[in-house]
Amino acid sequence: MSTLSLKQLRKQFGDVTAVHEINLEVGDGEFLCILGPSGCGKSTALRMIAGFEEPTSGDILIDGQSVVTMAANHRPTAMVFQKYTLWPHMKVYDNIAFGLKLRGLARTEIDRKVNEALELVGLPDYGKRMPNQLSGGEQQRIALARALVLEPKILLLDEPFSNLDALLRVRLREELRRIQRRVKITAIFVTHDQEEALSLADRIAVMSKGRVEQLDVPSRIYDQPATLFVADFIGVMNLIPAQQNGATIDLGALRLESPTRVNGTVTVAIRPEDIAIVGESDVDAWGGEVEQIIDLGHYRKLLVKVPSVGTLKVYAPKALDLRENQLIGLNPSRFTIFRDGAAPIEVKREAVAPLEMSVAV
Fold this sequence. Notes:
Elements: E1 4-13, E2 16-26, E3 31-35, H1 42-50, E4 57-62, E5 65-66, E6 77-80, H2 92-102, H3 107-120, H4 136-148, E7 154-158, H5 166-183, E8 186-191, H6 194-200, E9 203-208, E10 211-216, H7 218-223, H8 228-233, E11 238-251, E12 254-270, E13 275-278, E14 286-295, E15 299-306, E16 310-317, E17 327-332, E18 334-338, E19 345-348
Parallel strand pairs: 3-8, 3-9, 6-7, 7-8
Antiparallel strand pairs: 1-2, 1-4, 4-5, 9-10, 11-12, 12-18, 13-17, 14-15, 14-17, 15-16, 18-19
Helix pairs in contact: 2-3, 2-4, 3-4
């Protein structure tokens, strides 16, 4: 059993509070991603768990036991860093075996564990190589093997793939998830890459300015953002400032209905995939002009200028025959209303029929 608990964890550097009182529970075998922009406090939180930073206040418990006063090298954790940090003068085998030798294990036991670790990361014949003979992806796999060979209770990863190219990042995160499931280790992964977090995590903790804005499974983080920051940070979102009067929100030519009656400023958040492209003359839709068409492979992203609303991002299938400067209609099927001091309100509208796959020019 390997669980992690953060209790009112806080870190202050002078007058700057990098991490506010974080409360977090990570279950046995869970893969948790801490996601946020640069400077949000995510790496500081991870370094406190590892023992490289001392908390200003709060507690860190692993399997119910506090480790906050325990030195980093005595904690049941292992860290994989952004930089590979392999010792350049040592062969791959010796890099992985170093921690085991410090523990005084027998040579045969060390040999068995190192070979198992190399097999686990898919590099069984690399023991005799030097780090400078490895690619960036291979070095990061060896760094992972060096961490896993110590059999830690908690595996910590601080943006380990950020120095790699996009295709290799995708491949390695798939391999990391396979390895994590195979060894059933509890893992905490820090990243600023939302796609990385959504594809890896059992749950995601989204951080901003030292605070956890939302902690939930990836699908709910994306579909039901708890704050305006999460809505804007995760995925692509149209954020439209508006005034709500009673139960209605007038956005240009379209009137949206809210289940709550309030008066004041709100922000309407709409995902591009929740906007249907309809005929220009549709009375229950925005009329807009296509400003730009961006081909993203299996679909297109449109930038559509809508009077009194602004430029909206809309996704369209490639089979839909559209051109720039064309007039089209837009009808949102789902949106979320954000208002200061209130919980977000999700609204689903009646489904509308999209345009046929071919549009007359």
